């Protein structure tokens, strides 16, 4: 059955790949974008996920155009990497606001309708860093680990109501986020990936596609690694 899906941060990288995957399987897909040009081919809503009023408007616009959100992908994310002793309060807070606090309101807005209809799928795009930690990423790792605790708690709250809440934990994925890293750091990370290459965003999208499918109704509170084996043992 075609569903209404909303991908937060769906204008590039992993989010855009997820939007394409969900559209290819027949969903009515909305994406949020923060600025610039919206991606072609989708119903796009402008929204900075750190602004609660913008998130509320985004949900209202999607609801009016495509119907209530049945599949929510919480994907918008940033890094502000620095060793803790040089990290500013703003670097910490901005990463938490973008990656974690946005999940709180987005899931709250989405679950209202899902509970009414007795069906819903939520996926948070976390990271292997949530489990392993990473130098310079105390803020990012805290936000990504927070997403997992959040997802599992919400999963328990709504498990009996036809709604699943899961996380994917991508490893090193070929997007602008990784392109912004120094080359020696990228090579160091690549050396830790058993598969020996970065993930294509489409490979993360396929995992999100599965977790948001009808077939995945008995999977909730899970963290699915998409990391070329880098996280084995966590
Ligand atoms: P990109 O930097 O390519 O894309 C990030 C996306 O998030 C963009 O769409 C961006 O919008 C959006 N975004 C950031 N801040 C905000 C905001 N305040 N409001 C609205 N949208 C915002 O990153 P990726 O595609 O690589 O990352 C997507 C997700 O995957 C993130 O949560 C990231 O942490 C996670 N991840 C990525 C990994 C990787 O190796 N690439 C590994 C593990 C997890 P805009 O274009 O306006 O900036």
TrEMBL record:
UniProt keyword Zinc, yes or no: no
Pfam family, one: adh_short_C2
Superkingdom of the organism of origin: Bacteria
Keywords from the UniProt entry: Oxidoreductase
Alphabetized InterPro entries for the sequence: KR_dom (IPR057326), NAD(P)-bd_dom_sf (IPR036291), SDR (IPR050259), SDR_fam (IPR002347)
SMART domains, per the entry: PKS_KR (SM00822)
Molecular function via GO: oxidoreductase activity
Residue span, Ketoreductase domain: 3-171
Family: Belongs to the short-chain dehydrogenases/reductases (SDR) family.
Name the UniProt record assigns to this protein: SDR family oxidoreductase
Organism ancestry: Bacteria, Bacillati, Actinomycetota, Actinomycetes, Kitasatosporales
